[in-house]
Amino acid sequence: MAAPSFLKIDPAIERWNRMREDAYKHFRFTPRTTRVAMYGLVLFPGAIYYLASQTHLTWSWAGKQKGEALAQS
């Protein structure tokens, strides 16, 4: 025989948890989700790549001492 539970279950919280767990089953590409996907998968990595390619070989940390400039000439 099971022991009585002292935990009260709130049906609204249970519905919210069920909705959150099943969100992937009801996903659709809408204009908003497409925009978010483009930002996260194309624009953000593209911006990081652009910044990295612009600053590549601009700074030289090898063999520098205190007071010497890091910028390469």
TrEMBL record:
Topology with respect to the bilayer: Single-pass membrane protein
Main location: mitochondrion
Name assigned to this protein: NADH dehydrogenase [ubiquinone] 1 beta subcomplex subunit 4
PANTHER family: NADH DEHYDROGENASE [UBIQUINONE] 1 BETA SUBCOMPLEX SUBUNIT 4 (PTHR39476:SF1), NADH:UBIQUINONE OXIDOREDUCTASE 6.6KD SUBUNIT (PTHR39476)
Location(s), subcellular: Mitochondrion inner membrane
Species of the source: Rhizopogon vesiculosus
Keywords tagged on the record: Electron transport, Membrane, Mitochondrion, Mitochondrion inner membrane, Respiratory chain, Transmembrane, Transmembrane helix, Transport
Family per similarity comment: Belongs to the complex I NDUFB4 subunit family.
Transmembrane regions: 36-52
GO cellular component: mitochondrial inner membrane
